[in-house]
Design goal:
The protein is 41% helix and 26% strand. The protein is α/β, with parallel strands linked by helices and 335 residues long. Strands 6-7-8-3-9-10 form a 6-stranded mixed β-sheet, with helices on both faces. A 4-stranded antiparallel β-sheet has the order 2-1-4-5. Helix 3 packs across helix 4 and helix 5 packs parallel to helix 6. The structure holds adenosine-5'-diphosphate (ADP) and magnesium ion.
């Protein structure tokens, strides 16, 4: 049984931007599925289509068995959605925020209080529940939002970049809460992230998305084992023979791919320890001197590099997050 199914889903904004370029994937019931990709890859757009906030330009999507284009009400009744930006009201207390949300979600009156208490307990905010949310840290705000997304006991929980803008310790804490929630409620979770480690730690299946297309989908461990045994990273002195070294390295048996950025060569091979000496002798014949060498087991980082040809690490997501935060603060001060 699938919780989410998409078929050739497309979104072209009126500006002409093709944000989602024909993606098809299935998420099984009870799974934690992650979309991993850089800023601008199309993650939030896909999520907004799945949560019925945006209409697709083409293709189909089903969530909890309902068509997002024709059965929006049913879809909404079965999902929780925690947006990338914080949406809580800072001037209300944590508990008041949840009360407000419970009323908006038409939770039966007699169930509101016990559910809120359970959720405050689950995300460990019971101590602070009656303080104004403006006094909360970033991590506490996120926990409150996640609690809000769970009020109506959704079958599918959508988390858009749940830890963006948080420091690493807080991020790890949020991962623990997500795991705890998943254990407790056994719902399907669909999350997006541009943090490798987040996808690796939380997701049973990961779709790598770049430029609106899914490059590959698999469990983190099979993605890594697809890359085989050993990633060789070599830094070289800048040399006119660099390109030749790359093209000759590509011809070595067992080498599947080579990527280069500045002076760093990354070689994906099935037999790292055997291939490395061959590259040394190639380099020496071409007069290219090698500065450093390392052979490592593949990480999800390497998987990303291998499937997209570029690194995931960039700070643009953080920058745009900060920009939006600044904008919201300014808007607030105007009112
Ligand atoms: N409302 C919008 N109008 C026009 N273009 C948009 C809009 N929202 C996002 N985009 C563009 O669509 C692409 C995908 O954006 P998005 O889905 O937000 O990516 P991600 O969440 O992976 O960072 C980007 O090129 C972005 O600039
Ligand atoms: Mg996004």
């Amino acid at each position: 049984m699938y919780s989410i199914q998409t078929k050739d889903l497309k979104k072209i904004y009126t500006s002409g931007t093709v944000a989602v370029d024909g993606i098809s994937f299935d998420v099984e019931e009870g799974e934690i599925f992650g979309f991993l990709g850089p800023n601008g890859a199309g993650k939030s757009t896909t999520m907004m289509i799945l949560t019925t906030l945006l209409k697709p330009s083409g293709g189909q999507a089903f969530v909890a068995g309902f068509d997002v284009s024709t059965q929006q009400k049913n879809v909404r009744a079965n999902i929780g959605y925690v947006q990338q930006d914080i949406t809580i009201d800072e001037y209300l207390t944590g508990r008041e925020n949840l009360l407000l949300q419970a009323r908006l979600n038409h939770i039966p009156k007699d169930q509101i209080k016990p559910r809120i208490n359970d959720l405050l307990d689950l995300v460990e905010l019971d101590d602070k529940a009656d303080d104004a949310a403006i006094t909360y840290s970033g991590g506490m705000r996120k926990r409150l939002e996640i609690a809000g997304g769970l009020l109506h006991r959704p079958k599918v929980l959508f988390l858009d970049e749940p830890t963006v803008g948080l420091d690493i310790q807080t991020r790890q804490k949020i991962w623990e809460y997500i795991k705890k929630i998943h254990n407790e409620y056994k719902m399907t979770i669909f999350l997006t992230t541009h943090y490798m480690e987040e996808a690796d730690r939380l997701c049973s299946k990961v779709g790598i998305i770049d430029h609106g297309k899914i490059q590959t989908i698999d469990s983190p461990s099979s993605l890594k084992s697809k890359l085989g045994g050993g990633i060789i990273t070599i830094t070289i002195e800048n040399s006119p023979a660099k390109e030749e070294l790359v093209s000759k390295t590509k011809q070595i048996e067992f080498v599947r791919d080579v990527t280069i950025s500045d002076e760093k060569l990354t070689i994906f091979s099935s037999k790292g320890t055997e291939v490395a000496p061959m590259i040394f002798s190639l380099a020496s014949n071409l007069g290219v001197s090698i500065k450093t060498v390392s052979i490592t087991q593949p990480s999800l980082d390497d998987v990303f590099l291998s499937f997209t040809g570029h690194d995931l690490r960039d700070d643009t997501t953080q920058k745009s997050y900060n920009r939006r935060k600044e904008y919201r603060l300014k808007q607030r001060m105007k009112t």
